[in-house]
Amino acid sequence: MAVVPERRTLVIAGIGTAAGLFSGLFGVGGGVVMVPLLILLLGMDERRATATSLAAIVLIASAATVTQGAYGKLHVVEGLLVGVPAVAGVLVGTWVQQRIPARRVSLLFALLLAVVAALMVAGVEPGGDDGGTRDALQIAAAIAIGLAAGVVSGLLGVGGGSLFVPGLALLLGLPHVDAEATSLLAIVPVSLVGSWRQHRYGNLDLRVGALLGTLAIPGALLGVVIVNAIPSRAVEIGFAALLLFVSSQLGRRGLGRDDPPDAVADASRDDPFEAPTGPAR
């Protein structure tokens, strides 16, 4: 196996540190940092960057989840409620990504994030009861959020936390830091399945993904410590600012030119739940 050059390793370490800090602070996977930087600094194409980001997120979210568990912030049932349908969603998202330019969904997702950010800044009261009995409408909404987050994860190479966190906070009534911790728990299987799927499509740079995720862990742990030491309202405002930043970046991406026709993968396979049989590139 070829040795990664020192300068390249330093760049990967910088990307990982930033992504890990974002993940620990905001309960997201860190893909919003990794994907554009992998494209700009390492010269990856969009699909390879999203696949490699998902692989790194497995390690980042796992480390942050364990640390949040030590703080007693995890809600396992709620994590499963959004995480299980998200696994199905990520299979659909990665399948769709091979067939259409990802920019086609970017504008809609940017608008959604802007609305969610506005609700958080406005201090909209949560609709749940902080871990109590859930009614059928709440459960259905949580499942829908999980499915949508999985699709977004597969399409854009992010962990899905930008939808998990507000869904858990606004729909299920979890305190914001608890929502972030539980989001990280849900992100682990989503990113694992998504990266496996992308590997089957031949898009994953596993060496870079593993290195990126490993070097991101200290930043993720630091982020978790910080988020548990500052006021919850400050965390909410910070998360809203993150959503607005992501929304602006996705908006720019969505208004950019589409990928050329030959960049769209072969769409001959119709079943998103059937693994591709072709060799990984």
TrEMBL record:
UniProt entry keywords in alphabetical sequence: Cell membrane, Membrane, Transmembrane, Transmembrane helix
Subcellular location: Cell membrane; Membrane
Region (Disordered): 255-281
Bilayer-crossing regions: 12-42, 54-71, 77-96, 105-124, 136-156, 208-227
GO cellular component, one term: plasma membrane
Primary location class: membrane
Membrane-related topology note: Multi-pass membrane protein
Superkingdom field: Bacteria
Annotated InterPro entries: TM_pro_TauE-like, TSUP/Inactive_protease-like
Family affiliation: Belongs to the 4-toluene sulfonate uptake permease (TSUP) (TC 2.A.102) family.
Protein name according to UniProt: Probable membrane transporter protein
